[in-house]
């Protein structure tokens, strides 16, 4: 693994570790803004989990483009990251019984 890839991995892992904090603030914002009254339970969990995934994916994309990685490589890595992170956050919210 070259130095640029190690830096990308470190930054992406840091962002993934911050995602539960983003999830907490997303749920708090959606709850206090009253959006939770308009969304049924599972849809609220999905929207709450999707917001941190989009933030982490966007920041990861910017880091990967900064180090000039090829678009195909970025697409493959971000797809895996987004699916894994969405599933993990969705299960976390389901286990906590947010709804």
TrEMBL record:
Would I find Transmembrane helix among this entry's keywords? yes
Q: Which UniProt keywords apply?
A: Membrane, Transmembrane, Transmembrane helix
- Transmembrane region positions? 7-30, 42-66, 78-98
Protein name, entry field: Transmembrane protein
Q: Which organism is it from?
A: Thermococcus indicus
